[in-house]
Amino acid sequence: MVVDASALLAFLQGEPGADRVEEILDDSVIGAANWSEVAQKVRASGADWGIASGLLLSYRLKVEPVSRRDAEAAAESWRRGSGLSLADRLCLALARRLDLPVLTADRAWEESERIEQLRR
Question: Would the annotation count 88 as a binding residue?
Answer without folding.
Answer: yes
